[in-house]
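Researcher: Please translate sequence to structure tokens.
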Amino acid sequence: MKKKGLSVLDKFLTVWIFLAMGVGIGVGYLWPGIADVLDSYRIDTVSIPIAIGLLVMMYPPLAKVKYEELTKLVKAGEAKKVFSTSLLLNWAIGPALMFALAWIFLPDLPEFRIGIIMVGLARCIAMVLVWNQLADGDTEYCAVLVALNSVFQIFMYSFLAYLYVTLISGWIGGTSEYVNVSMVDIARSVFIFLGIPFIAGIVTRFVLLRQKGKEWYDNYFVDKIGPVALIGLLFTIVVMFAFKGLYIIQRPLDVARVAVPLVIYFLLMFFVSYGISYKLKFRYSIATTQSFTAASNNFELAIAVCIGVWGIGSLQAFAAVIGPLMEVPVLISLVNVALWIKKRYYDENGLPKEVKE
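Model: Translation complete:
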């Protein structure tokens, strides 16, 4: 069978993403009241427009997962090493790195500093599925790692927020804030943004496999719903940028101050993870999944916590919003970097090439 070429949506995805960013900023600037309108559609701290975009974005990748093969994957000889590496990157290296960068670049701006620390503590459960798919990562391992880190997130987020924002910041001599966020709130966020599309993906796969067969599902259905994820991504980007479009244009220096440590964080986490994965001889698809999982963050949780604790107009919430605004262009660029790494450092079977002395 002749291999199908990329669709127009896939081929020019970077262009569409930057256009979506521009549209969002333009709408936010020309219609300042749009932020209040969008924010009015909210259940507690959950933004309904962003939730819709994320759920639409996450469903196709999760419907693509071969759930019937996950048991085999978890029992694989490399599984323990993959999972332990992911936990190390996400719950030890990631939060500590963001904390250090926040203090290095924002020592005089405690509100901004706290905002991006909260972003660093929230490990990704959403957009990583799209980045991983675009970079030819392992879909099944991505689903398992996202689920694994989501469980840890329920128990670790409150503890790490107290450790970094209250204890260590107080010891250093900066502003010490008590962050009151319950495990119930975090569990609710995880269920909405991961549990719902996970359940939808599982039900869809097993029902349609039984009715239509594996060949139809993998070669027709998955192909047809693929563009839906990218449409959901573009919609989410427009909404996010519209929220702060006016602020971005009116106070670009504030945006730049917050953006610098965030961009450095995304790049460092990506390349550190790739380096570790290469040394551990993970195949390309797993190394890519590890790297995007480590470099991405659960911005919705971070934004929701900042709004709940400090208010929607707070500088902490603003800094948290800048997180995904920087993550989107950086991570879409790193998709291309990952594909270059695949050609340069991995063989045709996706295995690391031997490093020449």
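Researcher: Any highlights?
Model: The radius of gyration is 20 Å.
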